[in-house]
Specification:
The complex is a heterotrimer of chains A (about 375), B (about 375) and C (about 550).
Chain A lengths: L3 H25 L4 H11 L5 H24 L7 H18 L6 H28 L3 H20 L6 E3 L2 E3 L12 E2 L5 E2 L2 H18 L1 H11 L1 H6 L4 H18 L2 H8 L10 H11 L4 H23 L5 H36 L17
Antiparallel strand pairs in A: 1-2, 3-4
Helix pairs in contact in A: 1-14, 2-13, 3-7, 3-10, 3-12, 3-13, 4-5, 4-6, 4-10, 4-12, 5-6, 5-10, 7-8, 12-13, 12-14, 13-14
Chain B lengths: L11 H16 L44 E6 L9 H16 L3 E6 L6 H13 L5 E4 L4 H10 L5 E4 L9 E6 L1 H15 L4 E8 L2 H17 L4 E8 L10 H13 L4 E5 L4 H10 L3 E6 L15 E7 L1 H13 L9 E2 L6 E3 L10 H13 L11
Helix pairs in contact in B: 2-9, 3-4, 5-6, 5-10, 7-8
Chain C lengths: L25 E10 L2 E11 L4 E5 L6 H8 L7 E6 L2 E3 L4 H6 L2 E4 L11 H6 L3 H4 L3 H14 L14 H14 L4 E5 L7 H16 L3 E6 L2 H7 L2 E6 L2 E6 L6 H9 L17 E11 L6 E11 L3 E5 L6 H9 L6 E6 L2 E2 L5 H6 L2 E4 L3 H5 L6 H6 L9 E2 L2 E2 L1 H14 L16 H12 L6 E5 L7 H16 L3 E5 L3 H7 L2 E6 L2 E6 L6 H8 L34
Parallel strand pairs in C: 3-8, 3-9, 6-7, 7-8, 13-20, 13-21, 16-19, 19-20
Antiparallel strand pairs in C: 1-2, 1-4, 4-5, 9-10, 11-12, 11-14, 14-15, 17-18, 21-22
The chains are: A mainly alpha (about 375), B alpha/beta (about 375), C alpha/beta (about 550).
C-alpha cells in the first residue's frame, strides 16, 4: 500500500536525521563534518572502493532477503549469522572437493550452501513448531554452536589445511569459482551479484504473486486472521524458516566463489546482524533492501576513508545505528499519516458519522 | 632492561639438584607461600634441569647513526589498534621507539574493523601504498592474503607482516616469532612453581597461532616434570574472536582449572587474560602472562602479585629492528624468526618471583638456542 | 419489533424532575469537534435537567461517545461551551470534570482484578477520605444509599459483569460525582441485570443524581429515561419525551429513514443436512472443565440456526472447533456427509464453509492490505483469486469490484487499505467475500456487531437471500433481536453445553435471557417442540423442550 512518497519519505528523513546527528557528534568531538563527508564521498572515486561497496552489498542483500523473509511473518531469524557462515564453510569444503564440467560444480556448491543453511535453521524451526521454543533463543544458541562446528570442520584433522598461522579449507578449483566483471584497476564486481539480483526478483514474485507468499504475509500481518483464513501456521513457520535459512546460506558465496576461494579464519562475520538491519531499512521490499544494502556497504567502506583523515571511524557505527532507529520511527509516522489521509478519503465518500470504525459491543440495536 | 644472568653452574651440580628435588617431593605437598618464589616449593618430580648457561650475547641493532627521516611508515593494525594492551600496542611501541631513536619522516596508522572482509584489508593497504608510504607494516596474520595481493602491485614498496610469511614475495618481510620457544620456558616455570604438580593453559581462540603457545607450554612443563598434569582450555573455537576479548570467560575457565587442581595457569588469551589473573588471585593460584610484561601492565595491576612471569613476544623489538634495518637499507641480516636467540621471545622477571629458578630457565633457554631441545610448534598428544 | 424490555410499560415512578425551570445540570451549546477528515460533532446542543435520567441516542458512530468524552474532559471541543449547574466550565482533563461533579462509567470497565472492591473504589482517590475505616464507612454508606449491593472485601476478579459495573458506579460516586455519564451500560448485561441496574438508577435519581444515559436500545431508553436526545451524524436532531414517542419514531429519528428488520418471513428449511456436529468436546488446557461438552448440532440447507448465550459460554470455541481453528478432543464434524473432523481450516473452507468471524479486525481482515488482497484471504486456494500455487491478482481485483458493487461497500476504490473503511463497510466486505464461491454453510459470529444500521440491514438481507437459496447458516449473536428475527431454530449455549432450544416464532427476549443465564431451564415451551432436536446429549436439564414460565 501507500504511494511513492510513503515509500521514499521515511528513509530520506531517517538518513537526513542520522547525518545531522553525526554532524553534531563530529562537531562535539572536534572534527569537521564537511571534511568527513567529503572524505566518505570522495573515497568512492578512489581505488576499488566503489566496486567493494557493490560486492559487499551483494552479500548484505542476500542476508537481508533472508531476514526479510522471516520478518514478513514476524519471525526473527537471528541465526542468519550462523547459517551463512556454516553454509559458506560447507560450501567451501564441497566446492573444494568436487570438480564437474560446465559450471555444475558451482551449482553443486550453491546447493550445498543453501541446504546447509536450511538444515541449520531447520533445527530451530522444528523446535519452534513442535516444542514452542522461541526461534530467537534457539537461533542465538545455534549461532554459538555454529562457531564450534565450523572450527571442527576447518581443523586440519578434518577438512582444513594449515597455512602459516591461518587455517582454512583447500582453495576451490578454478572450475568452481565464479568469474566477475572486471573494471580494471577499479576492481572486479562479483559474478554472484547476478544471483543476488535473481534472488531479489524471486523474493518479490514469491511474496506478491504466489499463494505461499500471500499466506506468509497474512501470517505476519495478522496471525489470527491468517488462521481464520485457513493458513496452517506450523507449516508456514517451518517452510518460511527453511527458505530463509537456504537464502542465508548463499550469503557467504559471493566472497567465497568470487574472491577468497577458501573458508579460513579470516572469513568475515557479522553479516547476519547487518542483514537484520538492512531488511529493516529496506522495509522488506526487494528494491528497498537493495538500496539499504548499498548504503550500509558504503558506510562500512567509508570507515577507511575516515580513519585515513583522522576522523574516528566509530562515527559510521553511530550513523548506521541512528539510521535504523530513525527509519523505524519515520516509517511509523508516515504510515499513520497515510492511514489518516486514506480514512479521510474514504470518509469523503460516506456520511461523516460512519468514518470512524469503532468496535462496539452491541445489544439489541434498533 | 635485561638483568645480568647468574653465573654458570657446574654440570656436577645438576645431580645434587635432582636429589634435592626428589627429597622435597616427599614433604612438599603442604608447602605454601609460593608467591614470593618460596624456596623449592615445587611439588613435581622434576627432571634434571639443563646446566645454566654462560651469559648469552644478544644483538640489538646499533641505532646511534641511523637516520629514519626519509621513512614514511604506514602501520595497519589488527582489530583493536593502538591501545589494545596487546600485540597492536607492542607494534606501536616499536614504532614509537623508532620515532624517538632515529626519527621518522611520516607515520600513518590505520586500524582494522571487527569482522571485516578481505577487500577492506586490501583497500587499507592500497591506500597506504598509493600515498607512497614505505615501509608498510601489517599487524596480524589476517593480513597475509591482502599483503600477497597488494605487494605484487607495488614492487618498490617495502612490506613487513607480523605473524605471517608470504611465499615468493621479495618485498614482504615476515616478522615471525617462536612463540612455542618462549612458551616452553613458561611451561618450565609453571612446573617448578606448582605445588600440586598440576598446571593449566588457557587459550583465547583455538587457532594455529595460539596452539603454538600451547604446544610450547606443554612441552616445557613435561620437560621439567614428566609426570605433570596439565589442564587445557580454549575459550572459543577458531573463527570466534570473542575469546580474546572476554575476561568473564577467562575467569570461568581458570576457575574450573583451579577447581580441577591446577595451581599455575598460563594464558594466551589477550584481553581475556584479565579474567585469568583475577581467577588465579581468587583461587590462591599463580599465573603466567603473555606477550608483554603483564606484571607491569596497568589493566591487570590489581592481580599483579600472582603473575610470576610473562612470556614476552617482542613485537616491539621486531618492528623496531625492522624499521632500523629499512632505514639503513640493509635487510640482509634480518632474522627470519624472532626466537629466543635474538630475544624475539623471552620471559620476564618483574616482581622477582622466578629469580630462584632463573638458572633453570636460562639453562633450558640455552639448550633451545643451541638446538639441543627442539620445541614443537603444534600440540602433540 | 421485540427488544429486551426490562419492565412492562414505561412507568415514570419516583423522582419525576421537580422543577423544569431550574438551572440545567448540564448544558452544552454549539459543541463542535473535528477529527482529521471527520466532523465528529457539529453544533451540538444538549440540556440536561438536574435529577433526571437523560438518554442520548444515536446509531454507532453518530458521535455520542465523542460528545461524552468532551463532557468528561477527555477531549476538548473545537467550538462551543459547557455549563455545569449554571457555571461555564472548561475541562482540560477528567480530573477537572470530576471536580465539577461529573463522572463517567465507561463501557469497558477499568478495574484492577487483583484488588478488592473497596481498594478499587479508593484507588486514585486516597486523598478524599484516606484508605482506612473512614473511607470504608463512606463507601459502604454510598453503596447502601444507591442500592449497590456488593461485598466490599471481594476481589474484583471474583465478580460478574453486573457487579463490576456497580463497582464502577461506586467509584464515580465516591469521587463526588452528582452527574453520571453511563456509556452503553446495558451492552454487557442480560435482561435481568438490566432490570437491576435500572432499579438502582431510579433509587439514585430519587436521591438527586443526574444521569446521562448513552444507548441505542430504544426500549431501554423508553423504560428508564425522563427525556431523550437523539444524535445523528454528529449533531443533535432533537429532544423527545419518551412517554409520548414510540421506539419506531425514535429509531427513525436516529437513522433518518425507514427501518430495517431482521425478520425472516417464510421458512425455507429443507431436510438436507448440511452441518452435523456430534459429541464435540473441547477441554481447556490444564483444566478438567470442558469448554465444549458433547455438543450435538445439525444445520440444514436453507436453515438458520441461532446460538444464544452470554458471552464466554463456549460460542467462540464452538465456532472455532467447527472451523478447524481448534482441534476438538472428541466428536465429529460432518459437512454434507463428508467427515471433516481431522481436516484443517483450509480444507473445511474448501469444502464450502464460509466464515464471518466475531472480531473482524482480528480474524476477518488484514487491515494494512488493500481490499482486493483481503478478498484472497481464506480463498487463496480457489478460483478466481488463485490458480494452483499462483495468485490471480486480476481475478481478485475484479471479484472485489463485484463485492463492492453488490454488497454496497462504500469505498473510493479497491486499492484502499481495509483498515481505512468504517466498521460497517468492512463487515459488508467480509460477508460478501464469505458468500463468494458458493458456500453450503455460513458461520456468522455476531455479523452485525458494531456496524451502523444501514449496513446491518444490508447484511441481514444478504444472509436471508442466501438462506432462501439453500444456504445453511450457523448464527452466533448476542443481539437477541437479531437471533430471534433471523433464526429458524435457536439453541441456547451455557457452560459449554447446548442446554435449551427455543422457537424464535414464540420466544421472548426475556425468556431467552433467562435461559442464557442458566438460571431458568428453558426459553420456550411453546414452539420448540416441533424442531426435532438432532441427536441427544447427556440428557441433563435443559435439553429440548422443558417448559414453563418464569
Amino acid at each position: 500500500m501507500g504511494s511513492i512518497r510513503a515509500k521514499l519519505l521515511p528513509p530520506a528523513l531517517a538518513i537526513a536525521f542520522a547525518v545531522l546527528l553525526c554532524a553534531v557528534t563530529l562537531l562535539f568531538s572536534g572534527s569537521s563534518p564537511l571534511e568527513a563527508l567529503g572524505a566518505m564521498v570522495g573515497s568512492l572515486g578512489r581505488g576499488t572502493t566503489a566496486v567493494d561497496v557493490v560486492n559487499t552489498a551483494t552479500s548484505y542483500y542476500i542476508v537481508a532477503l533472508a531476514a526479510a523473509l522471516g520478518f514478513q511473518m514476524n519471525l526473527l531469524n537471528i541465526g542468519i549469522e550462523g547459517q551463512y557462515r556454516l553454509a559458506a564453510c560447507v560450501a567451501a569444503i564441497v566446492g573444494g572437493a568436487v570438480t564437474l564440467p560446465f559450471g555444475l560444480g558451482v551449482v553443486v556448491t550453491m546447493l550445498a550452501a543453501a541446504a546447509t543453511g536450511a538444515a541449520w535453521v531447520g533445527i530451530a524451526a522444528l523446535l519452534k513448531v513442535y516444542r514452542g521454543v522461541s526461534e530467537v533463543i534457539s537461533t542465538i544458541m545455534l549461532n554459538a554452536l555454529s562457531f564450534g562446528v565450523i572450527a571442527y570442520l576447518i581443523s586440519s584433522d578434518m577438512f582444513g589445511e594449515l597455512r602459516g598461522n591461518n587455517i582454512g579449507t583447500p582453495y576451490l578449483p578454478e572450475s568452481n569459482r565464479v568469474p566477475g566483471f572486471s573494471f580494471g584497476s577499479s576492481g572486479t564486481v562479483f559474478g554472484m551479484v547476478l544471483v543476488a539480483a535473481a534472488l531479489g526478483v524471486g523474493y518479490w514474485v514469491l511474496m506478491n504473486r504466489t499463494r505461499f507468499g500471500f499466506e506468509l504475509r497474512a501470517s505476519g500481518k495478522s496471525p489470527t486472521a491468517a488462521a481464520a483464513g485457513g493458513v496452517n501456521a506450523k507449516k508456514m513457520i517451518l517452510v518460511t524458516l527453511l527458505i530463509s535459512g537456504a537464502v542465508a546460506g548463499l550469503a557467504g558465496l559471493p566472497e567465497l566463489l568470487g574472491r577468497d576461494h577458501t573458508f579460513s579464519l579470516n572469513f568475515p562475520a557479522g553479516y547476519g546482524f547487518t542483514g537484520l538491519a538492512v531488511a529493516l531499512l529496506g522495509r522488506n521490499n526487494p528494491v528497498g533492501i537493495a538500496f539499504g544494502a548499498l548504503l550500509w556497504a558504503f558506510l562500512d567502506k567509508s570507515r577507511l576513508a575516515l580513519d585515513n583523515v583522522g576522523v574516528p571511524s566509530e562515527i559510521v557505527t553511530i550513523m548506521q545505528g541512528s539510521i535504523v532507529l530513525s527509519v523505524v520511527v519515520a516509517y511509523e509516522l508516515v504510515r499513520r499519516v497515510e492511514l489518516r489521509a486514506e480514512q479521510r478519503r474514504v470518509g469523503g465518500q460516506n456520511p461523516p458519522g460512519s468514518g470512524e470504525p469503532r468496535p462496539v459491543s452491541a445489544g439489541g440495536a434498533v | 632492561m635485561r638483568r645480568p644472568r647468574g653465573a654458570a653452574l657446574a654440570i656436577a651440580l645438576t645431580g645434587v639438584l635432582a636429589v634435592v628435588g626428589c627429597a622435597k617431593d616427599g614433604g612438599g605437598t603442604s608447602t605454601s607461600g609460593e608467591g614470593a618464589g618460596g624456596e623449592g616449593a615445587a611439588g613435581c618430580q622434576l627432571a634434571d634441569p639443563p646446566p645454566a648457561p654462560d651469559e648469552v650475547e644478544v644483538s640489538t641493532p646499533e641505532t646511534a647513526d641511523v637516520d629514519g627521516s626519509e621513512l614514511r611508515v604506514g602501520l595497519a593494525y589488527d582489530i583493536g589498534g593502538r591501545g589494545d594492551a596487546s600485540f597492536n600496542d607492542a607494534a606501536a611501541a616499536g614504532l614509537d621507539r623508532a620515532e624517538e631513536e632515529f626519527g621518522l619522516g611520516d607515520v600513518r596508522e590505520l586500524t582494522a574493523e571487527a569482522n571485516e572482509s578481505e577487500d577492506a584489508k586490501v583497500s587499507r593497504l592500497r591506500q597506504l601504498a598509493d600515498e607512497g608510504f614505505s615501509p608498510i607494516i601489517g599487524v596480524g596474520f589476517a593480513y597475509a592474503d591482502a599483503f600477497e595481493t597488494v605487494a605484487a602491485d607495488y614492487p618498490d614498496t617495502d612490506f613487513a607482516l607480523v605473524d605471517a610469511a608470504v611465499e615468493d614475495a621479495d618485498n614482504i618481510t615476515p616478522l615471525l616469532f617462536a612463540e612455542h620457544e618462549g612458551s616452553f620456558l613458561a611451561g618450565v616455570a609453571a612446573a617448578y612453581k606448582s605445588d600440586n604438580c598440576h598446571v593449566g593453559f588457557v587459550g583465547g581462540v583455538e587457532t594455529p597461532l595460539i596452539q603454538k603457545f600451547e604446544a610450547g607450554f606443554l612441552e616445557g612443563a613435561r620437560a621439567a616434570a614428566p609426570d605433570i598434569q596439565i589442564e587445557n582450555t580454549y575459550l572459543t573455537p577458531a573463527g570466534d574472536i570473542t575469546g580474546f576479548q572476554d575476561p568473564a570467560k577467562g575467569n570461568e575457565a581458570t576457575r574450573a582449572q583451579i577447581d580441577a587442581g591446577a595451581d599455575v595457569v598460563y594464558h594466551a588469551a589477550g584481553a581475556s587474560g584479565k579474567g585469568v589473573f583475577e581467577a588465579a588471585k581468587a583461587g590462591d593460584a599463580l599465573a603466567i602472562g603473555v606477550d608483554s610484561d603483564q606484571y607491569n601492565q596497568e589493566t591487570v595491576a590489581e592481580s599483579k602479585d600472582v603473575i610470576i612471569t610473562s612470556m614476552l613476544k617482542r613485537v616491539d623489538v621486531a618492528v623496531f629492528n625492522y624499521l632500523a634495518a629499512v632505514a639503513e637499507d640493509d635487510l640482509t641480516d634480518f632474522p627470519e624468526v624472532f626466537d629466543l636467540s635474538v630475544d624475539g621471545v623471552d620471559y620476564s622477571t618483574s616482581g622477582g618471583m622466578v629469580d630462584d629458578i632463573a638458572d633453570v630457565l636460562d639453562g633450558y633457554k640455552a639448550q633451545i638456542i643451541a638446538g639441543d631441545i627442539e620445541v614443537p610448534s603444534s600440540p602433540t598428544g | 419489533m421485540t427488544s429486551p424490555v426490562p419492565e412492562e410499560g414505561t412507568g415514570r415512578d419516583a423522582g419525576v424532575p421537580s422543577d423544569t425551570a431550574a438551572v440545567p445540570a448540564v448544558r452544552l451549546s454549539g459543541i463542535t469537534k473535528r477529527f482529521p477528515g471527520v466532523v465528529a460533532n457539529a453544533d451540538v446542543h444538549l440540556s440536561v435537567r438536574a435529577g433526571e435520567v437523560h438518554a442520548l441516542c444515536g446509531e454507532n458512530g453518530a458521535g455520542k461517545s465523542t460528545l461524552m468524552k468532551i463532557l468528561y474532559g477527555m477531549q476538548q471541543p473545537d467550538e462551543g461551551t459547557i455549563e455545569v449547574e449554571g457555571r461555564a466550565v472548561v475541562f482540560r482533563s477528567p480530573a477537572d470534570a470530576i471536580d465539577a461533579g461529573v463522572g463517567m462509567v465507561h463501557q469497558h470497565f477499568m478495574l484492577a482484578d487483583n484488588l478488592t472492591v473497596l481498594e478499587n473504589v479508593l484507588l486514585g482517590a486516597e486523598k478524599l477520605h484516606g484508605i482506612g475505616r473512614r473511607a470504608r464507612a463512606k463507601v459502604a454508606e454510598l453503596a447502601r444509599r444507591a442500592g449497590l449491593t456488593v461485598d466490599l472485601s471481594l476481589l474484583v476478579e471474583e465478580l460478574g459483569v453486573a457487579d463490576r459495573q456497580r463497582v464502577e458506579i461506586l467509584k464515580v460516586l465516591y469521587r463526588g460525582a452528582r452527574i453520571v455519564i453511563l456509556d452503553e451500560p446495558t451492552a454487557v448485561l442480560v435482561p435481568q441485570e438490566v432490570d437491576e441496574l435500572f432499579a438502582t438508577l431510579r433509587e439514585m435519581r430519587a436521591d438527586g443524581y443526574t444521569f446521562l444515559f448513552i444507548s441505542h436500545k430504544l426500549d431501554e431508553v423508553r423504560a428508564i429515561a425522563d427525556s431523550v436526545t437523539v444524535i445523528r451524524r454528529g449533531t443533535t436532531v432533537g429532544t423527545a419525551d419518551p412517554r409520548t414517542v414510540t421506539s419506531r419514531q425514535l429509531a427513525e429519528m436516529m437513522v433518518g429513514s425507514e427501518l430495517p428488520s431482521p425478520e425472516t418471513r417464510v421458512s425455507s428449511v429443507t431436510d438436507v443436512e448440511v452441518l452435523r456436529v456430534e459429541g464435540l468436546t473441547l477441554r481447556s488446557e490444564g483444566s478438567e472443565r470442558p469448554l465444549l461438552d458433547s455438543i450435538d448440532l445439525t444445520v440444514r440447507a436453507g436453515e438458520i440456526v441461532g446460538i444464544a448465550g452470554v458471552e464466554g459460554n463456549g460460542q467462540v470455541e464452538l465456532v472455532e472447533a467447527v472451523m478447524g481453528m481448534r482441534r476438538a478432543h472428541a466428536g465429529t464434524v460432518r459437512l454434507s456427509g463428508v467427515d471433516l473432523t481431522t481436516k484443517g481450516t483450509m480444507a473445511r473452507r474448501e469444502a464450502g464453509i464460509g466464515y464471518v468471524p466475531e472480531d473482524r479486525t482480528r480474524h476477518g481482515l488484514l487491515l494494512d492490505e488493500p481490499l482486493w488482497s483481503n478478498r484472497i484471504l481464506g480463498f487463496q486456494s480457489r478460483r478466481p483469486v488463485s490458480s494452483g500455487a499462483w495468485l490471480s491478482i486480476e481475478g481478485a481485483r475484479s471479484d472485489t469490484a463485484r463485492i463492492v458493487e453488490q454488497f454496497d461497500v462504500r469505498t473510493p476504490g479497491i486499492d484502499v487499505a481495509a483498515g481505512a473503511l468504517s466498521g460497517g463497510n468492512q463487515q459488508k466486505l467480509i460477508v460478501g467475500r464469505e458468500l463468494s464461491g458458493d458456500p453450503v454453510l455460513l458461520i456468522a459470529s455476531h455479523p452485525t456487531r458494531g456496524v451502523d444500521v444501514g449496513a446491518q440491514a444490508g447484511i441481514w438481507e444478504h444472509i436471508k437471500t442466501a438462506r432462501a437459496q439453500g444456504l445453511a447458516v450457523l448464527l452466533v449473536s448476542a443481539d437477541l433481536d437479531e437471533l430471534i428475527g433471523l433464526s429458524d431454530t435457536i439453541r441456547v449455549i451455557y457452560g459449554g453445553r447446548l442446554v435449551a432450544d427455543a422457537d424464535p416464532r414464540s420466544v421472548t427476549p426475556e425468556e431467552l435471557g433467562a435461559a442464557m443465564t442458566g438460571a431458568a431451564d428453558v426459553g420456550s415451551g411453546r414452539g420448540a417442540a416441533d424442531q426435532s432436536t438432532p441427536g441427544t446429549d447427556d440428557g441433563e436439564a435443559g435439553q429440548s423442550t422443558r417448559g414453563g414460565d418464569r
